[in-house]
Each structure stands twice: as C-alpha cells, then as structure tokens.
From TrEMBL:
This is 3-oxoacyl-ACP reductase. It comes from the Bacteria. InterPro entries: NAD(P)-bd_dom_sf (IPR036291), SDR (IPR050259), SDR_fam (IPR002347). It holds the Pfam family adh_short_C2. Belongs to the short-chain dehydrogenases/reductases (SDR) family. Signal peptide: none annotated.
Length: 259
C-alpha cells in the first residue's frame, strides 16, 4: 500500500530515542522528509545519518522543547518550507503515587509535557489548513484510558492532551486536518525499562519479576517493539487515513481491558 507520504514534511518531537525516533524512521522510510528535535543533539545526528544512509531525508535540531517551541518551528520551516505532519511526543514525568505529588510539581510538568504541544500545533495549523492537508498525532499513554499505578502525573497530564485533541479534531476536520492520539501500552523502550525499575524498587521485587507480571497481563504475551508502534503512526499520518480523526488508537497488545 502506498501511504502517499512521499514529499510530505514531518516534525517529530523528542525523537532522539524510543518512540519518537522510531516514528521519524518509519515516516522517512515511507518517503516523508523528517525534522527531528530533542535535547540530545548527538543522538539526533546519529539517527539523521542512519535515515540518510537508507535513502531518506532528515534534519536534526537540538533544542529544549519546554522553552524553545517557537525556535523549533522556525527551524523546521527554514529546513523544509512547511510542516504537514506533527508528531507530538514529549518526555514523561517521574513515577509517583497521586497522593505523593507535591503541588509545586504540576506546573513545570504541564509546561514541559502539554503546553509545547498546544503551541506547536497552533504554529503548524495555519499552513496545514491553507494547504488542505495536515496530521497532528499526539503520543500519550494507555494510562489515559486505564490509569497506570504509580504514574499519577502521566495519567493526569496526558489526559489533558486527549481532551484538547478531541476538541481540536472537530474544529479542523473540514479543512483536511486530522487530529488523533496514539496510546502505547508496554512498548520496549528505555523509558519502559526505567518505569519497571521504579516499580521494582517500590514493590521490593526484582525488575525481572515486575516485567514478568506486566507481560502476564498482556494478551499478546509480550512487550511490543517500537517498529510496531511507529508503523501505526505512519499510517495515521498518511493520505490513506484521511477519514480517521478524533480517535484514540491503542497499541497495547490488548492490555487495556475496557471496550
């Protein structure tokens, strides 16, 4: 299937590793020009070289998403001439129980995880609407449907992105812009490893025990891999997904129990 991504321009946030990096690779493999950004400039350059070696087109821009959203957009505009696809990926907050989150922690994590997505979408939207094509894909978490224990901040702040995305989707659908949220379950990344280690410490268990328990709760019987996740993102970013908007797409091996 031709996804119609050749010549499309994608801005992928937090793309130096994990899900963001996999999304950049998948979009480039389908013919999109990708602009990657994260604080780790060295890692971005490594990914850029790998994409180019495979025949793709990529740009790397080291920046802090929290304070440099406008600079990121301006650099993407200079490099590509516009943004057709925004993959809004942000880092996660520390693992904490809801009752243990200090009041002072909410604002800085909202500023780093939520506000930059609002800002960059606002900057990208005028061009998308004018061209009659746009894709805004926000990477959240399965915790917005089935809250994940010890991830109170993630469950809460990412839920704000879901409400915003659903509202925006209805406002821009007639302009050819789709807005969707992708929900990773247990996808094997550095972040998942960090969370398993945090849970092991909290529960007084080994990391292997925590991982085994998590795997047992997944009908697919395993953690997912980043390529499986990124392929779904590439489809949703494509011209083939033009009638999919306002949706929550679960990529979780069946782990979420609700209908």
């Amino acid at each position: 299937m031709d996804l119609g991504l050749t010549g499309k321009r994608a801005l992928v946030l937090s793309s130096s590793r994990g899900l963001g990096q996999a999304c950049a690779r998948a979009l480039a493999a389908e013919g999109a020009e990708v602009f990657m950004t994260a604080r780790s400039a060295d890692k971005l350059e490594e990914t850029k070289r790998a994409i180019e070696a495979a025949g793709g087109t990529a740009h790397a821009f080291g920046a802090d998403l929290t304070s440099q959203a406008d600079e990121i957009y301006a650099a993407a505009e200079r490099a590509m001439g516009g943004v057709d696809i925004l993959v809004a990926n942000t880092g996660g907050p520390p693992a904490k129980m809801a009752a243990d989150v200090p009041d002072a922690d909410w604002t800085p994590y909202f500023e780093s995880m939520v506000k930059p997505v609002f800002r960059l979408a606002g900057l990208c939207l005028p061009g998308m609407r004018q061209r009659g094509f746009g894709r805004i894909l926000t990477i959240a978490s399965s915790g917005v449907i089935q809250p994940i224990p010890n991830l109170a901040m993630s469950n809460t702040l990412r839920s704000a992105l879901v409400g915003w995305s659903k509202t925006l989707a209805s406002e821009v659908a007639k302009d050819g812009v789709t807005v969707n949220v992708v929900l990773p379950g247990r996808i094997r990344t550095d972040r998942t490893g960090e969370l398993d280690a945090a849970n092991a410490k909290r529960l007084g268990k080994s990391v292997e025990e925590v991982e085994a328990a998590a795997t047992a709760a997944i009908p697919a019987g395993r953690y997912g891999n980043v390529e499986e996740f990124a392929d779904v993102v590439a489809f949703l970013a494509s011209t083939r997904a033009s009638y999919v908007t306002g949706s929550l797409m679960r990529i979780d091996g069946g782990a979420i129990r609700s209908v």
